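Supplementary Note 3. Input sequence used for the single-chain structure prediction.
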Amino acid sequence: MWQCSKCGREFKNINQGHYCGKIDSVDDYIADQIPEVQPLLQKVRETIRKAAPNAKEKMSWRMPTFWQGENLIHFAVFKKHIGIYPGDLTESPFEERLSGYRRTKGAIQFPLDKPIDYEFIADITKWRVSVVEMERAEKSQKTL
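The predicted structure, written as discrete structure tokens, is reproduced below.
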């Protein structure tokens, strides 16, 4: 195990790249990034906020997060992409639209060297809101 001398966090890999600082808000997160990506992150934030107007912003897993009874969607910037983390995409209606992106079960990478499809981010967010609301309705029906 290697321990960072600045923040005290422990890692398996020696000199593992990581962020030492503490970010308390989405504003802080965006302001802490390089100037070239700040407008992109602000636009992602605005897109998600419009698509999920009842969601609250918070930081979770060191990423900007929109929460509406549960985590709806996270986003974060990396060296070559902005990652969007809406959770499990295996049941999503976006299979065709996802085909052009690097992705995992719960993440989509939007490359920084290509235009970001903000409409797609909005659609994913709206889908997540509908999933959360449907699950909440099903739970309330079970308790009746």
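The chain has one domain: 23-143. Residues 76 and 83 are 5 Å apart (CA to CA).
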